[in-house]
């Protein structure tokens, strides 16, 4: 892990499991847990979909960058980011500098199975949501890989199994760097 802050930062597409796995990791590591999307909603008092409706994606992304900068300044946390957090270069620099970044990877077909009934995904509110998800993946996958210290395929395993695998891989990596 990044010795500077010891933060554990999860990135990945919507439906990859960042929130669920992040909570499990924070509990097992006895660390504070933060979710950048949840923090934006808490501060604004409305769901992200409402922010998109009122301010558009650009307005939401500006709020997201501010929240990520503030959360990355904390130490010893587990942070789950929104799926688009890596779109801004400043966010990628901040994430990479302030902790160990883990990309929870899943293929578009897997992601679609997980999010297809979720009506709180403003970017998927299109006539062809599965195609939109594939387009988002094509743009974002290289950015997640750019910022990631570790890539973990989420596959079909349970969030608990994924958290265990991730902890084992992080412990192994820490032993190697000692």
Quickly list its features.
178 residues, alpha/beta, Rossmann fold, five-stranded parallel β-sheet, 7 helices, 57% helix
Topology:
Elements: E1 7-11, H1 18-29, E2 32-35, H2 36-44, H3 48-72, E3 77-80, H4 89-97, E4 99-105, H5 108-115, H6 129-147, E5 150-153, H7 159-177
Parallel strand pairs: 1-3, 1-4, 2-3, 4-5
Helix pairs in contact: 1-7, 2-3, 3-4, 5-6
Give your account of this protein's structure:
Helix 1 crosses helix 7 (159-177), helix 3 crosses helix 4 and helix 5 (108-115) crosses helix 6. The N and C termini lie close together (10 Å). With 178 residues, this protein is of the alpha/beta class. The protein has helices at 18-29, 36-44, 48-72, 89-97, 108-115, 129-147, 159-177, and strands at 7-11, 32-35, 77-80, 99-105, 150-153. The protein has a single domain, classed as P-loop containing nucleotide triphosphate hydrolases (Rossmann fold). The chain has seven helices and five strands, in the order βαβααβαβααβα. The model has no long low-confidence stretch (mean pLDDT 88). The protein has a five-stranded parallel β-sheet with strand order 2-3-1-4-5, with helices on both faces. The protein is 57% helix and 13% strand.
């Amino acid at each position: 892990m990044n010795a500077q802050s010891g933060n554990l930062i999860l990135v990945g597409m919507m439906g990859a499991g960042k929130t669920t796995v992040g909570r499990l990791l924070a509990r097992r590591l006895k660390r504070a847990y933060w979710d950048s999307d949840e923090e934006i909603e808490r501060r604004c008092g409305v769901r992200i979909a409402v922010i998109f409706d009122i301010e558009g994606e650009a307005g939401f992304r500006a709020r997201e960058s501010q929240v990520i900068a503030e959360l990355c300044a904390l130490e010893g946390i587990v942070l789950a980011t929104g799926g688009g957090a890596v779109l801004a270069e400043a966010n990628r620099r901040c994430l990479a500098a302030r902790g160990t970044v883990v990309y929870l990877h899943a293929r578009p077909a897997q992601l679609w199975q997980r999010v297809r009934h979720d009506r709180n995904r403003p970017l998927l509110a299109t006539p062809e949501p599965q195609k939109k998800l594939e387009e988002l993946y094509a743009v974002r996958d290289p950015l997640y890989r750019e910022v990631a210290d570790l890539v973990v395929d989420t596959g079909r395993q349970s969030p608990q199994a994924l958290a265990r695998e991730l902890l084992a891989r992080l412990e192994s990596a820490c032993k190697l760097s000692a």
